[in-house]
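User: I'm writing a short report section on ligand binding and want a predicted complex to refer to. Could you take this sequence and EPU and write out the structure as tokens? A short remark afterwards would be nice.
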Amino acid sequence: MQKFIINGGKKLKGEVKISGAKNAVLKMIAATVLTDKICILDNVPRIKDVETICKILESVGAKTRWLSENKLEIDPSKINSYKPDPDLVEKMRASVVLAGPLLARFRNAEIAEPGGCVIGARPVYEHWKALNKLGVNVIQTESKSILKTKKLIGNKVILDAMSVTATENVLMAAVLAEGKTSIRVAAAEPEIQDLTKMLRKMGAKIFGDTTHAIDIIGVKKLNGVAHKVLPDRYEIGTYAIAGITTGGTITIKDVIPDHLDIIVNRFEAAGANFKFINHKGEYSDLLIEPSKKLHPIKIDARPYPGFPTDLQAPMSVLMTQLPKTSKIFETIYDGRLKYLDELKKMSAKINVIDNHTAEITGPTKLHGAKITSFDLRAGATLILAGLIADGTTEIDNIETIDRGYEKIEQKLQKLGADITRINC
Ligand code: EPU
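Assistant: Sure. The structure tokens for the complex follow:
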């Protein structure tokens, strides 16, 4: 068990390098099951969830090896099982996306009930209903789902909810299915777009993946691939908020502005002072400078291109520093406002109206407190709060943060923050 101790009040200053996106790389590692050739992924974050998915892949026979700090080689040639280790699968929601690739390779998959952050109802029936349209028979027991097909055959699949992982599961089953699959009400997050970029390099035929209508023409075989993972939008957002709320001057290196539209739209509405500089192809740096006048805002967390639910919690810390009343409307999860109780312990003025709606009134001086991280994004939020609070903030259960943020305290220390990890 470890804790973060933060002495707040430091203005952040300097440059921060963003890691590869967790919610892309986990699916890319799963996608290597679709080939028997070597795959090399670059810009892979050294986070707990990546460690876990590598172990899951090894549990079915793959070999993984770090070629350098962030370059991972996966050899899927010896995969010989369609039953990933249930104890590992239960640790992480993203492991559900192994279903599509395992079905494509073995026509069978056995997936234990996937775990992950506790943020509200996260059913998987959508995944199984969608795969059933491709000819998959599903038997659900208390502890696992048993999936079988004689042959994956393309079909039209209309999702009930724009689920990221359900879209990815169908996509990865469909690339090796017979004929055409059309996914409608598909999720279109940039992380899915980057996964399709990788699958295309492997030989897959995918169309329309920047929209909510994705078409896939099945092919017989996929090749190995070398692919660089896109930068993590949520990590970018987190450091940007740290820059704005501490009144610092920071440069967030190598971001893809096109993926940040609604995020920078909300920063702009709040009166934040930022600009994209040093353009290199699709990449730019994001410069955050002290703001003169801030304004209240409203965010609606929705599927892409709407405001990402994964930045809903971090935005609440910015809201505590905005004048008047700002509003959060979380449409995706019904349990993702619990962290607000921890912010209240730091003197934030918060009115939780229901499971989806909250109002935050500011600007408020936050005070250091002993608080608990309930999930990955909530944990990052509490760090942001600690950075601007007076006195000392102590955050426990920080393993939740290590699941998705690479070297967070080291990156913040480099920007001048007083944050230390201690063993308890
Ligand atoms: N849903 C259904 N039926 C289903 C599946 C989902 O109604 O069968 C609904 C859920 O209730 C929810 C919405 O669809 O309202 C999306 O939920 P889901 O749990 O399916 O999301 P996900 O695809 O598993 C991914 C990210 C999440 C991110 C969401 C939304 C991964 C591994 N996870 O989850 O990331 O919040 O999309 O963008 O890609 C995180 O990184 O901290 C995280 C939680």
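A remark for your report: The chain has 14 helices and 23 strands. Residues 22-23, 26, 93-94, 117, 121-127, 160-161, 163-166, 309-310, 332-333, 376-377, 404 surround EPU (CB under 6 Å).
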